[in-house]
Design brief:
The complex is a heterodimer of chains A (382) and B (504). Chain A contains 14 helices and eight strands. Chain A is of the alpha/beta class and 382 residues long. Chain A folds into three domains: 51 residues; 167 residues, P-loop containing nucleotide triphosphate hydrolases (Rossmann fold, 3-Layer(aba) Sandwich); 81 residues, Four Helix Bundle (Hemerythrin (Met), subunit A). Chain A has an eight-stranded mixed β-sheet with strand order 3-2-4-1-5-6-7-8, sandwiched between helices. The N and C termini of chain A lie far apart (53 Å). The N terminus of chain A is likely disordered. Chain B is an alpha/beta fold. The longest helix of chain B is centred in the last third of the chain and has 23 residues. The chains are: A alpha/beta (382), B alpha/beta (504). At the A-B interface, helix 1, helix 2, helix 3, helix 5 and helix 9 of A face helix 2, helix 6, helix 9, helix 12 and helix 13 of B.
Chain lengths: 382, 504
């Protein structure tokens, strides 16, 4: 036992001393940061130029390594079908039935008592909105109810929804696509959030809208991630660039931008490897990817954070840290067709001001739809 | 990131003052905090409610312990309840008498089934088994290719064919028998719990292979929905256990507790990193601390035990406590500590450290710079840093590629830390040692002193002289790690106390 105490003391000593240096240099280094960034960028540029040749084949087709059989075995994608955009409500239908009538009692109440208020708060918590955000929302609504003398359940619920709508209203949820430049949409997120699938669906969407996207397989870490994206590219008719597994993601994205410019594609959908936001080195890598992607002729016009709807309170930490690293411009909420409500994006949007732009509502290629705040809020209570 | 629960509770209890027993009102107020803490950790609401009731029952009327303050006492109860809920039954892998032993993986999309399958195969291999991986995820593009790549990395064969998941799984059993593979791990496609067709399919796969173990793969970041998902899968598949993934993230992982409560089956394995070897049996006691946001002491202890030789560490500590610690010793300790992982992670695991200090991110490159500075000193300078004057300073700076300000910063910071350690040597450990002897006689754990310092009432005169005023130019006077100057004797003692609590 004493051994541990001793080690701790040593740790405190070391950390204390190291901490000093760190804080000191941090402050001192502030001004120099920009300059050194520029240097890194320069170096990256040099590396990239010389790396281009060994970064692996720049290929417009799916890599041969993909098991043809596997591709065949996948469910048929109805590319020829008429595209019917699924409505939010339709897709949420399945999930909603599981919760139907949850707040039914409340709606029928003539006077909302303490217990009912608590139930209302719990409904928000159950949707992963978070306990602090839920408490403050309920607090606001209670005050408002008192002021407007709203008493029955229906009125109170309406007030709460209205309060939430206000929070989500008037946000620019469009995806930025500039003319006369090679747009880069960088797709980031933790492992398993659905980045590659999102790019696949996004590519298809863009093709259908008459744009010409190029998918760049920047996830060089996960086994067969490039093959997965390649399959999507083939299905959607997007151009495709990949590097070698374990290669430098920045160079793949750089190649992607170059190829897009050469082939006349106006938007690069840049995939990145999933990373947990507490891994500082991986977040640094991501910042570099963003800087490199922004080099001429590329211009990063969207940085989309992919959040899994089943994610709980950690979603807030994800949004914060990714925003610090790469300046996230929008959230894609995936897997909302399950029973999860994705309430954490409410907290993300209201506290960090990052708009939710897209929602994944199913496995099909056309199941990536625009975010509808009103329907989202309504669905939270169903 | 999170206030530790103990901090919060101390606030409450200092307001309440000290009483002989914990009254219902005391406990009720604390329970509110517990509710918030658990919900913030993504523990399911229903599970939080039942936990609260159990904690209330145990805590009310409890005599205030002599050794612990009320806050610590309640935290201890909460911690014990959580550990009990998370643990209990552990998984005991029994191999089928007629091989192969079949393991099936199921879960939502993106929870980590494919990676976990490979990690599990590696684990079985390390147990002396010959696993076969089965790629029955024909849904996600290139999922089988991913499994094949991972299989190559761990030298485990992968069986798959482009038919349908059920027949792939079924034929895998035959394949395993004919090739002498004694464990079969079936990776299935991710599916939503509400997708009837796919849930039906996974049931058919299960019927075809009759798994000895069915594991639900759960992402540690999952929110309130974890319960719904676990229930749905359990209903269809009769789960035998849970594999908790992405535990290397900073999610507090309340989902683990929710799932455990609902399914009633043990959390068998935990995945703690991107590498295939980052996978091991699950430790409920660590998870309880994590959910409570209390720093992962046990991991720290284990890491320390791996890294440190007891004698060496004791020698170093003795020197330190007597104020004899030199920069040479410091260098050596720092190198040892580095083996335990990034310093930022270590700070997060230290108990009793003020929040401001805990949240600081430390760049490990900084450690290298300090190493360079010390290595550029002569042995005499390392033994007595006070002898470093301006000319020595600039020599050291140019030798280490730093600047004189950084050199003097290091030296003065080191001096302060040394003083602090000496202070600790003066009181903390001696007391601990004494109380340990006492405890040994009495045959009971815990500190005998019974000192309670309410957080609010503490003043920090010792720190006041050292804090750098905000506007002052950096480097002129020593900076402290934020909050570290606030560590006083009480904190040091508290660290010692908390450590005692972990001894078992």
């Amino acid at each position: 036992m004493e051994l541990i105490l001793i080690i701790l003391v040593v740790a405190v000593l070391v950390i204390g001393t190291v901490g000093l240096g760190f804080v000191a240099t941090r402050r001192r280094g502030r001004d120099l940061e920009l300059e050194s960034d520029a240097k890194i960028l320069d170096r990256a540029g040099v590396d990239l130029d010389s790396d281009t040749h060994d970064a692996g084949p720049v290929d417009g087709t799916v890599d041969d390594a993909v098991d043809d059989a596997v591709v065949e075995a996948e469910p048929e994608v109805r590319t020829d079908d008429i595209i019917v955009k699924p409505s939010f409500f339709e897709r949420l239908g399945k999930a909603r039935s599981a919760f139907a009538g949850y707040l039914g009692d409340l709606v029928g109440m003539s006077r909302v008592d303490d217990e009912a208020w608590e139930e209302l708060e719990e409904a928000l918590i159950r949707a992963d909105i978070g306990v602090q955000t839920s408490m403050s929302l309920i607090g606001d609504v209670q005050a408002k109810a008192k002021e407007t003398k709203a008493e029955d359940g229906k009125q109170v619920l309406a007030l709460l929804k209205e309060r939430m709508h206000v929070e989500l209203a008037d946000k620019d949820r469009s995806l930025r696509l500039d003319d006369d430049t090679t747009n880069v949409w960088l797709v980031v997120g933790v492992n398993g959030a659905g980045k590659t699938t999102t790019i696949g669906k996004l590519g298809r969407r863009l093709v259908n809208e008459g744009e010409s996207p190029l998918m760049a397989a920047g996830d060089t870490f996960r086994a067969a991630a490039a093959e997965q994206l390649g399959t999507w590219a083939e299905r959607s008719g997007a151009e495709f660039v990949r590097g070698s597994e374990g290669g430098d993601p920045s160079s793949v994205i750089f190649d992607g931008v170059q190829a897009a410019a050469a082939r006349g594609c106006n938007v690069v959908l840049a995939d990145t490897a999933g990373r947990l936001q507490n891994k500082a080195n991986l977040m640094d890598e991501l910042s570099k990817v963003r800087r490199v992607a922004d080099k001429d002729p590329g211009e990063v016009t969207e940085v989309l954070l992919v959040l899994d709807a089943t994610t709980g309170q950690n979603g807030m930490s994800q949004a914060k840290v990714f925003t610090e690293a790469v300046d996230v411009t929008g959230v894609v909420l995936t897997k909302l067709d399950g029973s999860a409500k994705g309430g954490i994006v409410f907290a993300v949007e209201s506290e960090l001001g990052i708009p939710v732009k897209l929602v994944g509502l199913g496995e099909g290629a056309d199941d990536l739809v625009d975010f509808e705040p009103t329907e989202f809020v309504d669905a939270l209570f169903e | 990131m999170f206030d530790s629960l103990t901090d919060k509770f101390e606030g409450i209890f200092s307001r309440l003052g000290r009483k002989g027993v914990l009254t219902e009102a005391d406990v009720e107020e604390v329970l509110k905090e517990i509710r918030v803490a658990l919900l913030e950790a993504d523990v399911n609401l229903a599970v939080v409610k039942s936990l609260r009731n159990r904690i209330r029952e145990r805590a009310v009327g409890e005599e205030v312990h002599k050794a612990l303050n009320p806050a610590q006492q309640v935290v201890k109860i909460v911690n014990e309840e959580l550990t009990a809920s998370l643990g209990g039954e552990t998984i005991d892998i029994r191999y089928a008498s007629k091989p192969p032993t079949v393991v099936m993986m199921a879960g939502l999309q993106g929870s980590g089934k494919t990676t976990s399958s490979a990690k599990l195969a590696r684990w079985f291999k390390s147990q002396g088994r010959n696993p076969l991986l089965v790629g029955a995820d024909l849904q996600r593009p290139a999922a089988v290719e991913q499994l094949r790549t991972l299989g190559r990395q761990i030298d485990v064969p992968v069986h798959s064919e482009p038919s349908d998941p059920v027949s792939v799984a079924a034929s895998a059993i035959e394949q395993a028998r004919s090739t002498g593979r004694d464990v079969v791990i079936v990776d299935t496609a991710g599916r939503l719990a509400i997708d009837e067709a796919l849930m039906d399919e996974v049931r058919r796969i299960s019927d075809a292979v009759e798994p000895d173990y069915t594991f639900l793969v759960v992402d540690a970041m999952t929110g309130q929905d974890a319960v719904t998902v676990a229930e749905a899968f359990h209903e269809r598949l009769e789960l035998d256990g849970v594999i908790l993934t992405k535990l290397d993230g900073d999610a507090r992982g309340g989902a683990a507790l929710s799932v455990k409560e609902v399914v009633g089956r043990p959390i068998a394995f935990a995945a703690t990193g991107e590498k295939l070897e980052d996978f091991d049996l699950f430790h409920p006691d660590r998870m309880a601390n994590r959910i409570l946001g209390m720093g992962d002491m046990l991991t720290l202890i284990e890491k320390a035990e791996e890294t440190y030789e007891k004698d060496e560490a004791e020698e170093a500590a003795a020197k330190m406590l007597e104020g004899q610690f030199t920069l040479d010793d410091f260098l050596e300790q720092m190198q040892q500590l580095k083996k335990m992982g990034p310093l930022t992670n270590l700070v997060g695991m230290l108990p009793g450290l003020p929040k401001e200090a805990r949240d600081v991110e430390i760049d490990d490159r900084e450690v290298n710079r300090i190493e360079a500075i010390i290595k550029s000193m002569t042995p005499a300078e390392r033994a007595d840093p006070d002898m470093v004057d301006a000319s020595r300073r600039s020599r050291i700076a140019s030798g280490s590629g730093t600047n004189p300000t950084q050199v003097s910063g290091l030296i003065s910071q080191f001096g302060q830390m040394r003083k602090m350690m000496k202070r600790l040597g003066g009181m903390g450990t001696k007391k601990v040692r004494k109380s340990k002897r006492k405890d040994a006689k009495r045959g009971k754990k815990g500190k005998g002193g019974g000192r309670v310092t309410p957080k609010g009432g503490r003043t920090t005169p010792k720190g006041s002289g050292r804090v750098t005023p905000k506007g002052e130019k950096v480097g002129k006077s020593p900076l402290m790690l934020p909050g570290l100057d606030r560590i006083d004797d009480a904190d040091l003692e508290r660290m010692a106390e908390e450590l005692e609590g972990f001894e078992s």
